[in-house]
UniProtKB/TrEMBL annotation:
This is HVO-0234-like beta-propeller domain-containing protein. It comes from Halonotius roseus. Residues 3-283 form the HVO-0234-like beta-propeller domain. Pfam families: Beta-prop_HVO_0234. It comes from the Archaea.
């Protein structure tokens, strides 16, 4: 919990960042400042199956399709986002299993394993045109051109989707050196997939600057940017962490019981959101401090 002093100076020097959590109760929007957790509330009350965000756009998967909203975090002075969602899946996309969002395109997989992509079409009120890229088996996550599925890691390329190996993949990151969290261990992509640690892993995230985090049976693994060495630490809470994200100088994780965990490099803080059935977490934009 924050002290009264922390609440008074929240965001003043380090700025604020939006964090979005997909849960069975809806989409939670949380404002954080470095490792301090501030205001939070429901941005959508429709059960969310997946979430992705950039500095100016938010995309949410549901059992009934895909929602998107334009956001302007920098103009809100730290208030929790209140986005106006539009349905953008059209007739092509039904129940969403995973989604990824870059400044250039949206990539989404439905519950049948069909993968679609679309270039951004300006404001979300302009419906995108969807291109079917391929089909996989049991999609769990999509990140930076890679897809985690029950039958392997797939690369999304001009030819569609291409299986690159591994099995029972729970999470993947394509930021920097690709990493995959699987039922058998944590792997990095070098000359093929190479083992980093044994045991079942649930989530992995990297920031593109050499830092990476992964969580599983072995605990919380942290890769240092300086030498690439991995160290094993204790997760910040006892409940299982189901997803991780890293951007804007912070790492966030969410547990299956809806506890948000945040670190800016000097230790973890956590806050119970009271929203069970968490599925995923994404870091959006923010406002710089004074």
């Amino acid at each position: 919990m924050q002290t009264l002093t922390e609440k008074r100076v929240f965001g003043a020097k380090t700025g604020v960042t939006d964090v979005f959590v997909a849960t069975d109760a809806g989409l939670a929007a949380v404002t954080v400042s470095a490792d301090q957790i501030g205001a939070f509330g429901l941005a959508s009350r429709e059960p969310a199956t997946a979430v992705a965000a950039t500095a100016d756009r938010l995309v949410v998967g549901t059992d009934d399709g895909l929602l998107a909203a334009d956001i302007d975090a920098g103009s809100r002075a730290g208030d929790v986002a209140d986005p106006a969602f539009e349905s953008i899946g059209g007739d092509a996309i039904g129940s969403v299993a995973a989604v990824d969002l870059t400044p250039e395109e949206i990539v989404v997989a439905d519950s049948n394993g069909v993968v679609y992509s679309s270039e951004h079409a300006g404001a979300v009120a302009e419906p995108p045109a969807w291109e079917q890229r391929g089909t996989t088996d049991g999609v769990r996550a999509i990140d930076a051109g890679l897809l985690a599925a029950t039958d392997g890691v797939y690369r999304i390329d001009d030819d569609g989707v291409t299986n690159t190996g591994l099995t029972d993949v729970r999470a993947v990151t394509g930021v920097g050196q690709p990493l995959a969290a699987t039922a058998d261990g944590l792997f990095r992509l070098g000359n093929g997939w190479q083992s980093v640690a044994d045991g079942a892993f649930r989530a992995v995230a990297a920031d593109g600057h050499g830092h990476a985090h992964a969580v599983g049976e072995a605990g919380l693994l942290v890769r240092a940017a300086e030498d690439g060495a991995w160290t094993t630490t204790t997760p910040p809470v006892e409940a299982p962490v189901v997803d991780l994200a890293a951007d804007r100088g912070i790492v966030v994780g969410v547990t299956d019981d809806g506890t948000l965990c945040v670190t800016a490099g000097d230790g973890w803080r956590h806050q119970r959101l009271g929203l069970p059935g968490a599925r995923g977490v994404a870091i959006g934009g923010g406002a710089d401090g004074s």
